[in-house]
Amino acid sequence: MKYLKIIILIIFTSSAIFAETLTANDILKKVDSNMVIEDAVSISTMTIHSRMGTRNIKSKSWIGDEEESYVEYLSPPREEGKKMLKTGDKLWIYTPEPNERIISISGHLLRQSVMGSALSYEDFMENDVLTEDYKAEIVGSDTVNSRACYVLNLEATSEDVNYHSRKVWIDKERWLPLREQRYAKSGKLLKKTEILDVFQVGERWYPKKVKFKDMLSRGEGTIMTIDSLNLDVEVPDYKFTKAALRR
Amino acid sequence: MIMVTLKLALKNILGAGLRTWLNVIILSIAFVAIIFTQGFIEGMGNAIVNDMQEMLYGGGQYWHEKYDPQNPLTIDGSHGELAPKMKNMINNDKMVPILIRSGSIYVNGNSQVIQIKGIKPEQNVIELPSEHLNTESEYIPAILGSRMADKVNLKENDQATIRWRDKDGTFDAADIEVVHIMHTSVQAIDNGQIWISISKLRSMMELGDEATLTILPQGIEAPNIVASQWLYKSPDVLLQDIQNMLKTKTAGSMFMYIVLLAMGLLAIFDTQVLAIFRRKKEIGTLIALGMTRRQTILLFTIEGALHGVLGLIVGAVYGIPAFAWIANKGIKLPDMMDQFGFALSARLYPSFGLKLLLMTTLLVLGSVTIVSFLPTRRIARLEPTEALQGRGK
What we know:
The structure holds 2 protein chains of 2 kinds.
Chain A: H1 2-20, H2 24-35, E1 40-50, E2 53-63, E3 68-75, E4 83-87, E5 90-95, E6 101-105, H3 121-125, H4 130-133, E7 134-144, E8 147-156, E9 165-171, E10 177-183, E11 189-201, E12 204-214, E13 221-230, H5 242-245
Antiparallel strand pairs in A: 1-2, 1-13, 2-3, 3-4, 4-5, 5-6, 7-8, 8-9, 9-10, 10-11, 11-12, 12-13
Chain B: H1 2-15, H2 18-57, E1 61-64, E2 80-81, H3 84-91, E3 96-107, E4 110-119, E5 140-145, H4 146-152, E6 159-165, E7 171-182, E8 193-197, H5 198-205, E9 210-211, E10 213-215, E11 230-233, H6 235-238, H7 240-278, H8 280-288, H9 293-329, E12 331-332, E13 347-348, H10 354-376, H11 384-388
Parallel strand pairs in B: 4-8, 5-7
Antiparallel strand pairs in B: 1-10, 1-11, 2-9, 3-4, 3-6, 3-10, 6-7, 12-13
Helix pairs in contact in B: 1-9, 2-7, 2-9, 2-10, 7-9, 7-10, 9-10
C-alpha cells in the first residue's frame, strides 16, 4: 500500500512537471495540429458590418492541403455562383453569367477586402502552419471567455509572412487561439481576431464563430460562422483546377 | 486689265449693299471661330505638354524593364539597382530617381489603395515641391496633391496611417504627416498617391539603392546607359498619348469648321447663282463690248472671292483685338475640366500662331474662290445675243 501511494505520487508529480515544461513551440504545435485541416468541406456564413448595414454571405469551401482551397458562394443572389480558387500563392475568381469570366488576383490585389469585409483575399484563403513561420514565447497566462489560456508572443522566422509578430491567447485544453492580435513590423496593431464560439468535431475543437477586426479601419468588423464542417471527406484533385471554376 | 476687273468687281459687290455685307459677316464669323477654336486646342496642347514635362516627364525617363504605369500589378515588382552611370548623374543633379510601391492610406478609419512614391527632397529636375519633405516631423513627412488631399479629407499638418508590405510581403504600417499640399494641373502626380523621401521609402521596403524610374532634366541629352533592365523613354514617347488625344480633338473640331464654313460658302454660292441669273443682260453687254468669256468668268469669280477678302478684313477688325486680349488674359476653365484627366491649369492661354492664321486665311480664301467660280462656268455657255436679251440657259 505504501509503495502504491509512492507510485501514484510519482505519476502525479511527473505529469505536473510535464505540464509545467510544455514549451511555447509544443503549444504552437498543438494549435497547428488542431487548426490546420486537410481534406475538408465546410459551409460558412460571413457577416459583414459596415456603414451600409449588415450583409450575410454564405459560402461552401473545399480544402485540400494548406496550399489548396476552393470556395463557392451560395447566397445572397447577387453573389451566388461566384467562385474562388487558391493554389499556392495564386488566386482566381470566377464570375458567372451574364459577365462570365475568370480573373487572376495577385500582388497587392490579394490584400483587397473580400466583398467589403475585414478579411483580405489572403486572410480568407489562409490555412498557415504557425510553427513553420513563427518562433513562440510564453509571456503569461490569462482567461478569455472563462477559459484558461496561455499567452504567446509569436515572432516571424520566415521573411515572407504577412504579419511580423502576433500575440495569441491559446485555450489550455482545446488548443484554440481564442484571441489574437496581429502586428506590423513597426509594432502597430493591424488586426484582431476573437473566437466567440466553438464546436467539437470528433476529437478536436474547432472555432464556430470568429470575429475579425481591421484595427486601422472603422466598423465593427466581420464575423465568420462555420455552419458545418466535414473533416471526413476526400476532396478530388480536379476541384483545385481552373477548369472546376466553370463547372 | 486685272486692275480694271478688280475695281469693277469691288464696285459691283459694294453696290449690292446689304446682301454683300450679310455674306461678309457670316464669313468673318466662320473665320474668327475657326481661328479661336484651333488656337484654344493649340493652347491646351502646349499647356498640357509643358506642364507634363515640367512636373513629370522632364527631358525623358528611364523605366525599369518591368514597369508599366497602366498595369498596377507590375508596380511592386518593378524596381532595380541603378546603373553606376545613373548614380553619378543623380549625385550631380542630372537625374532624379523615383521609387514607387503600393500601399493603403487610412484616414479616420477609411482606407484607400495608394501608390507611395519616393523622391529625393533636394532634387531640381522636376518642379515637384519635394523640398518640403525635409520638414522636421515626428512622423513621416508626406506631400499630397490637392485632389488626393480632398479625396481622403486631409489638410496640411494632419496625420494619417499608411500600410504597406516590405520587399518580402510582410505588412508594415506607420503614421505620416502632411507637410505640404501641392496644387498641380498634372493629375498623374496627384491622384491616388503620396510622396515621401526616397531614402525613407527605401528603408521602409528594405530596398537598397533601387528605383522604379529615373527622370532626366529638360534639355539634357539622354546618356547611353549600358544596363538591360533600364529602358529609355524619350519625351516624344512619353507624350505620345497626349499628342494622339490632341490630334483626335483637332479632328473632332473639323466638323465644326465644316459647318461654319459651309454656311458662309452656301451664301456665296447662292449669291453667285442669283447674280449670273439676274445679270445676263450685263454679261451679254460686257461680251459685246469686247470682254472674252474667260474675262467675264474672272470678273464674277473675283466678285465672289472679294466676299472672302472682306470677310477676313472684317474678321480682323474685331478678331485681332479679341484674340490679343484672350491670349493675354487667358480663359478661366470650369472646374469640371479637371475631371477629363488632362493636365490643364485653371486658366488656359490660347495660342494664335502665324501658321494657324495663314492656314485659316488660305482655307477661307481658297474655298470661297472655288465656290465663287463654280456657278460662273455657266457664262461660258451663254450666247451673247441671247444674253443681251436676258435669255439663255
